[in-house]
Amino acid sequence: MSVTDDAIEAIKQMIVDGELKPGDRLPREPDLAERLGLSRNSLREAVRALSLIQVLDVRRGDGTYVTSLEPSLLMDAMGFVVDFHRDDTVLQFLEARRVLEPAAVELAAQRMSTEDIEGLAELLDSLGERPTVDELVQNDLEFHRRIAAGSGNPVLSSLVESVSGRTQRARTWRGITQEGVVERTLTEHRAIQQALAARQPDVARAWATVHIVGVEQWLRQTLVERT
């Protein structure tokens, strides 16, 4: 490990041990460097690296603080990495989505408030009878975001949102090229919402799986046709 890696590990351990809590200010740079037996340059590089992944917040003229460490904040770093993947890896994200999202839907059927579930029906109604593909995709993203949040698990919700957002382009292309996809998507969304309203976790999970597999199968076939 490099000296900077050592510094990162030392700061991380202070957070894990509870010595530094969310919102706490780090000791002054010279004091912390002396305590950890590191050079100030190495410590500075470690702080810069941890700030990039939203673990630390460097405030000019004030000091360096531990962030809230909320999952949604930390997952931003994952989204940054995901953005560098090429289109030909989107299938892997759909596979990940097929694992994560049905689990979130199942939990939402148990934990999501009745008011929020009714709000999903209103969201679907807002599309009207003939939505454009762009309107459908935006509605789709919001529909799944709300359900993920309704799972009551912030970590799972953040993972679902990070993975789901990266399949947006594939969903848009499917809407343009595959006949009947708008109607099919709305039908499956209605089925998911109704299963949530009926508090049927198994049914909701099954419909969520069917819904995601439809996009995945379409993409697999499209990639086969291109080769």
Automatic annotation (TrEMBL):
PROSITE patterns attached to this UniProt entry: HTH_GNTR
Presence of the UniProt keyword DNA-binding in the record: yes
Keyword Transcription regulation carried by entry: yes
Record-annotated HTH gntR-type domain positions: 1-69
InterPro entries, alphabetized: GntR_C (IPR011711), TF_FadR/GntR_C (IPR008920), Tscrpt_reg_HTH_GntR (IPR000524), WH-like_DNA-bd_sf (IPR036388), WH_DNA-bd_sf (IPR036390)
Keywords: DNA-binding, Transcription, Transcription regulation
Taxonomic superkingdom: Bacteria
Pfam families: FCD, GntR
PANTHER family on file: TRANSCRIPTIONAL REGULATOR, GNTR FAMILY (PTHR43537), UXU OPERON TRANSCRIPTIONAL REGULATOR (PTHR43537:SF5)
Stated name of the protein: FadR/GntR family transcriptional regulator
